[in-house]
Amino acid sequence: MPELPEVEVTRRGLSASLPGSFVKGADVRERRLRQPVPADLAATLEGQRLVRIDRRGKYLLMRFDHGTLLVHLGMSGGLRVLPPHTPARKHDHVDIRFEHAVLRYSDPRRFGLMLWIDGWQDMHPLLDSLGIEPFGAEFTGAWLHRATRGRRCAIKQFLMDGHVLVGVGNIYASESLFRAGIRPGTAARRLAGTRCDRLVDAVRETLTDALAAGGSTLRDFLSADGEPGYFQQHYFVYGRDGQPCRICGTPIRTLRQGQRSSFYCPSCQK
């Protein structure tokens, strides 16, 4: 599933060419996503100007003159900017036709969504319960220390809880914990203030490096201009079970947490 870096890479790619453009029309070939695409989406968008594109967690918020198109990429979704009249393929479900280009939503698994919100208010059930942003001013070591007091869950599960902190999924939680020298199974409540400071820095550093590399492409992800991400080439632990640690040479180990695999170095992480 695309995580925060992949969604932000997509946002930046779309923002490079689409804002200021007017919608000429829309074609919805398949409405059956995680939630149905609005039946009147084409009529709603036609003639509207795209003002800007924001991101909240893993959601894209496309701000038009009279409302917001809320987009989630799901497990395998992607948005591409293509030349007009580019033929659609099997899993190309929605086209938004601008004056000079087509914005195409593709999603083989159809776990994504595309919903309309009247106005620019970020008031929607899918957004209301989201946690803080990892690049936001609120995300500090002091905040993390307060938020983890009394939490019996493992720190990796805490980082991945979108109601607390948005956008840090399995890949980047594993990589951040390695950089911070913290094992994924450590109880969140046991982290001292200095370790919280180090983990906040590690999360931001990991996400920043992932953005610079265009995100991660493990299966389906491509940026808005069709380019894959390359951050997977720099993973310290994720998906490297049994391979030597890039720092100390100790074989990377894996454990199961909440039906997901967690990867760590038993020497570098305590």
Keywords, separated by commas or semicolons:
10 strands; Helicase, Ruva Protein, domain 3; four-stranded antiparallel sheet; 270 residues
Overview of the molecule:
- This protein is α+β, with helices and mostly antiparallel strands and 270 residues long.
- It has two domains: 4-128, MutM-like, N-terminal (N-terminal domain of MutM-like DNA repair proteins, Alpha-Beta Barrel), CATH 3.20.190.10; 141-264, Orthogonal Bundle (Helicase, Ruva Protein, domain 3).
- Helices cover 24% and strands 21% of the residues.
- It is built from seven helices and ten strands.
- The protein has helices at residues 4-15, 41-45, 125-128, 141-148, 155-159, 170-180, 193-212; strands at 23-28, 50-56, 59-64, 67-72, 78-82, 92-98, 102-106, 113-118, 253-257, 260-264.
- The strands form three sheets. It has a four-stranded antiparallel beta sheet with strand order 1-6-7-5.
- α1 crosses α7, α4 crosses α7 (193-212) and α6 packs across α7 (193-212).
- The two termini are 28 Å apart.
- The mean pLDDT is 92.
